[in-house]
Design a protein that fits this description.
Blueprint: H1 2-9, H2 20-35, H3 39-55, E1 63-66, E2 83-86, E3 106-107, H4 112-116, E4 122-128, H5 137-147, E5 148-159, H6 164-172, H7 174-182, H8 186-193, H9 198-208, E6 209-218, E7 225-235, H10 237-245, H11 247-250
Parallel strand pairs: 1-2, 1-4, 2-3, 4-5
Antiparallel strand pairs: 5-7, 6-7
Length: about 260
Amino acid sequence: MDDILKILASFPKNRRPLSAKGRLVYEKEYAINRTGNGIYSVVRFLESWMHRKIAVSKIPGSVLEIGAGGLNHIAYEKNVPQYDVIEPLAGQLCEKSPHRHRVNEIYSDYGVMRSMIGRHQYDRIISIAVFEHLQNLPFVIAASARLLSKNGILQVGIPSEGGFLWGFAWRLTTGISYRLRTGLSYTELMRHEHINTLDEIFLIIQYLFKNTSISFFPCFGKHGSFYSYIEASAPHRQRSKEILSKKKWRDSPIHA
C-alpha cells in the first residue's frame, strides 16, 4: 500500500520542458513518427500487437477509446454498435481519418469524463500508447472505473517504459534516426513525453480495480518486452470516487 500511496502523491506530474530547438521540431517530428517510412513503419508494425490484443476481446457492446489519435485502432474492431473517442487533437487527427464515419461521438477534452459519469456507460474502455503520457493519470483511470458497465473491462496497451528492452530498442532505432535528422538527443524528447512508467500505470490500475492481468510482447516480463497489455475489471468504486473528489485531481491538466 505504501508504494501506491507514494505513486499517487507524485501526481499530477510536471512535464520536463523541451529545449528551444526541441520545440521547433516537435510538431514535424510527431508527424514523422506517426506516418514516416523506414524504421517508423517497423515501429508501427510492432505496435500493432497492442491493437490486436485489445480487438480480440469477446465482450460485445459500446466502446470508449481514450486518446484515439488518427482513429487507427478502429480498423481492428468489428461490429461495434457505439464507438466514442476522446482526443484533444480531434480537429487535426480524427476529422481527417477515413474511419471518421464509424465514430459516434468525439470529445476533445479528457476532463469531460467527469461529466459523463452517471450519463454514459461503456462495455469496454480502451487506450493504446496514451497512459504513459498523461500528467493526471489517476483521474483518467478513476473516471474510467466509474464509466464502465457492470461487466465492463478496461484494456490498456502501453510501451514497457522502464524496462531494459524498450529503452535499448528506442535508443538504437528512432533515437539514432532523430539525432541524424535534427542533431538533438531523443532522450530529451522521451523524458518530455513518457512521464509514466509501466510499473506506475499497472499499480494505479491494480489499486482501482479488483481484477487485473498483464501480458507482454515479445517476451515475458517488463525487461524482455517492447509493449505490455493490461486488462482490468470489477472497479473499486469507492476508491475511484475518492480520487475524483479531490481538488488536486479535479483541477489539474491531464495532458499539456
